């Protein structure tokens, strides 16, 4: 005998999605297992996520590539908006799916200094830095580009239409609305369904030409969020928050379901702080989604960092090294056997 909530809608089968164990909604992967875990197991259908760009926008584009690559693997529909770069350039740099476990970096042999201090950490318990180990995300290899034959299997829409075309929120919404209202993406029509992935690069940047751009941006986000709720679609936006004032950034936070911020390190910062030597920046949780649930999922940790390796982008828990002080020169001299030892220390 099965128990089912009266009036609960049936969740359709869509490749690349799974039903949430917490609520009656579809979840899909962002392409990054750790990010799925922070979202509560995946990105809910109808949700909109914002990634606040780092200084120089060196790392935020990788999140868009993972997001689109995940959709290509499952033959989902793609809507790609290029702001700093053309949409076709974004699609041509998607990482290819790798077989088996996630590709690991080649092991580096420990040098003599590391072997000398290894005994000092024997009593320190091992820590687990990875998160999202049991997610449905694919494994992608950044060192290998996805083949065009894989992308061609998907229904792809790009904006703007050509090089040199202007970026307008009103024009973009009209084109998005046409895709969201198609039978395969709409919740109010019948037929076979498919998921639409919307990837927008650097929304809110000065490259958008609308007059009174901030009010147009807010209106666009509000309308997009409304129509996403009635569609089998998800959206991932990168936002140049460093170029916005605090009031504008707050409005973006309000209308997006989840917001994460990237704080990249300079080479000088990484060398000055040993704990950040292998990390490329901090990953801040600004807002987590709470769609059709009482509260958002509780993350394993809020102290997170991101690392861009040769083959993959990783989000990990940030652990500081043990506070074990270095030996001082006075301590070395005290136990030295040299002839300059003071007689006050060892008196024959």
TrEMBL record:
Subcellular localization: Cytoplasm; Nucleus
Annotated GO biological process: tRNA wobble uridine modification
Cellular compartments per GO CC: cytoplasm; elongator holoenzyme complex; transcription elongation factor complex
Domain of life of the native organism: Eukaryota
Keyword Oxidoreductase tagged: no
Pfam families named in the record: PAXNEB
Pathway listed: tRNA modification; 5-methoxycarbonylmethyl-2-thiouridine-tRNA biosynthesis
Keywords of this entry: Cytoplasm, Nucleus, tRNA processing
Family listed: Belongs to the ELP4 family.
Name of this protein: Elongator complex protein 4
Lineage: Eukaryota, Metazoa, Ecdysozoa, Nematoda, Chromadorea
């Amino acid at each position: 005998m099965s128990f089912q909530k009266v009036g609960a809608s049936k969740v359709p089968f869509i490749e690349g999605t799974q039903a949430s164990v917490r609520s009656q909604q579809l979840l899909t992967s962002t392409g990054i297992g750790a990010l799925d875990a922070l979202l509560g197991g995946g990105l809910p259908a109808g949700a909109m996520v914002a990634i606040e760009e780092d200084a120089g926008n060196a790392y935020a584009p990788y999140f868009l590539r993972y997001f689109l690559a995940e959709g290509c693997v499952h033959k989902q529909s793609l809507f790609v908006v290029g702001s700093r770069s053309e949409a076709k350039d974004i699609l041509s740099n998607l990482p290819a799916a790798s077989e088996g476990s996630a590709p690991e970096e080649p092991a580096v042999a420990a040098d003599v200094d590391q072997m000398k201090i290894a005994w000092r950490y024997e009593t320190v318990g091992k820590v687990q830095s990875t998160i999202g180990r049991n997610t449905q995300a694919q494994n992608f290899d950044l060192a290998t580009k996805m083949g065009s034959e894989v992308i061609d299997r998907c229904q792809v829409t790009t904006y703007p239409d050509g090089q040199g075309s202007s970026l307008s929120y009103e024009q973009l919404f009209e084109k998005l609305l046409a895709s969201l209202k198609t039978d395969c993406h709409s919740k109010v029509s019948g037929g076979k369904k498919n998921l639409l992935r919307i990837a927008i690069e650097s929304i809110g940047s000065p490259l958008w030409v609308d007059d009174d751009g901030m009010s147009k941006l807010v209106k666009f986000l509000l309308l997009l969020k409304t129509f996403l709720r009635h569609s089998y679609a998800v959206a991932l936006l990168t936002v140049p928050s460093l170029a916005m004032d605090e009031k504008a950034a707050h409005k973006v936070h309000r209308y997006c379901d989840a917001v994460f911020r990237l704080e990249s390190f300079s080479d000088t910062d990484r060398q000055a702080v040993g704990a950040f030597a292998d990390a490329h920046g901090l990953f801040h949780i600004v807002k987590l989604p709470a769609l059709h649930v009482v509260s958002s999922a509780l993350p394993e940790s809020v102290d997170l960092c991101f690392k861009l390796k040769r083959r993959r982008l990783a989000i990990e828990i940030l652990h500081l090294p043990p506070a074990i002080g270095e030996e001082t020169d006075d301590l070395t001299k005290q136990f030295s056997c040299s002839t300059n030892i003071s007689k006050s220390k060892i008196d024959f």
